Structures are given as structure tokens and as C-alpha cells.
Amino acid sequence: MRYHFEIRAPLFLDPDPEGEEFASMEAACEHVLETMRQYLASRDVGNLNLVENSTIEISDETGITTLLPLADVIAELMHKHKGSAVPRGATIH
């Protein structure tokens, strides 16, 4: 199934018109975590300018959307939480 990833902040939207193929929503969430892991490894985490209400929105072809609060994704990675690929703050719509 094709999944689209959008980053949304109060005054900003970065749409993903092409999307990518994944076997499941969990696999798509794992992709987000791995991408953020790589991004954070290449930057000074102390200088991240996060907007508290920013989210990564993952939508499938049927319109089901999982919202991943960006701050929760980063906290998950920084604490190296093991377990589900879906961060604790994720909501599904």
C-alpha cells in the first residue's frame, strides 16, 4: 500500500504527493523513526528548533491517517525506547 508523509506545523505544511510503498502502517512508522534517527545522528540535537504542535502525518490510500507528534518521535529516539514502531503519542484517524 502507498503511504504519504506530511510534516505539519501551525504555519507550515510539507506535503508528500508521491508517497512510498510499505507493507503496513507499522512499517511506514518504522520508516519515519529510521529517517529521524539518521537525521538526528547527523545534527546537534540541542539546536533543534521544534514547534511544539508539529506532527508527521502518515496517510494510506484509504484515507486512514496516523499522526505522530514530532516531539514524541524525537523523544522516543533519544530515549532509545524499544518495542512498537508506533511512538506513544501516535493517534490514528
Task: Describe the protein.
By secondary structure, the chain is an alpha+beta fold. The protein has one domain (2-92). The protein is built from two helices and six strands, in the order βββαββαβ. Strands 1, 2, 3, 4, 5 and 6 form a six-stranded antiparallel β-sheet that branches.
Number of strands: 6
Largest sheet: 6 strands, antiparallel
Overall pLDDT:
79
Global shape: globular
Measured by DSSP, the beta-strand proportion falls in 25-35%
Helix/strand structural class: alpha+beta
User: What is the terminal-to-terminal distance?
Assistant: 17 Å
State the helix count: 2
**Structural domain count:** 1
Unreliable stretches: none
Secondary structure blueprint with pairings:
Layout: E1 2-9, E2 12-14, E3 20-21, H1 25-41, E4 55-60, E5 65-69, H2 70-78, E6 91-92
Antiparallel strand pairs: 1-2, 1-3, 1-4, 4-5, 5-6
List keywords for this structure.
28% strand; 93 residues; single chain; 6-stranded antiparallel sheet; alpha+beta
